[in-house]
């Protein structure tokens, strides 16, 4: 069962082949990209809010610090998150998956 349909109330639906999908070719307009981008934005906002223990470090890693360039990019983090999601679906195939099920996966590990 290589095909999985992703259903999102906010971002529509998309059927992907988890065996052949390459995260580096996923469109920024696709459902899978938008879901992972939303997760990244939530993760970033939460972890860089005032008082967050690693807030300044995370900001520096993604946007640079002083004369030091950024070592991560938002696009790269989202792409890695898509790859992580695909890996989860390869390990535990599902014909249909929704946003709630995706949120329960540890996709955020790709952003750290």
Short characterization:
With 112 residues, the protein is α+β, with helices and mostly antiparallel strands. The chain is built from 4 helices and 3 strands; from the N terminus they run ββαααβα.
Description:
The protein is α+β, with helices and mostly antiparallel strands and 112 residues long. The chain has one domain (3-110). It is 44% helix and 13% strand. It has helices at 31-47, 55-63, 74-91, 99-103; strands spanning 3-8, 12-17, 96-98. A three-stranded mixed beta sheet has the order 2-1-3. A hairpin with a 3-residue loop joins strand 1 and strand 2 (12-17). Helix 1 crosses helix 3. The longest helix has 18 residues, at 74-91. The radius of gyration is 15 Å and the shape is elongated. The protein starts with a strand and ends in a 9-residue tail after the last helix. The model has no long low-confidence stretch (mean pLDDT 95).
């Amino acid at each position: 069962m290589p095909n999985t349909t992703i259903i999102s109330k906010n971002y529509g639906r998309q059927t992907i082949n988890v065996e052949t999908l390459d995260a580096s070719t996923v469109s920024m307009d696709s459902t899978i990209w938008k879901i992972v981008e939303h997760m990244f934005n939530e993760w970033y906002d939460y972890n860089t809010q005032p008082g967050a223990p690693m807030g300044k470090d995370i900001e520096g890693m993604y946007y640079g610090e002083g004369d030091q360039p950024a070592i991560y990019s938002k696009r790269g983090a989202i792409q890695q998150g898509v790859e992580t999601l695909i890996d989860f679906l390869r390990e535990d195939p599902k014909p249909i998956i929704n946003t709630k099920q995706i949120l329960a996966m540890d996709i955020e590990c790709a952003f750290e």
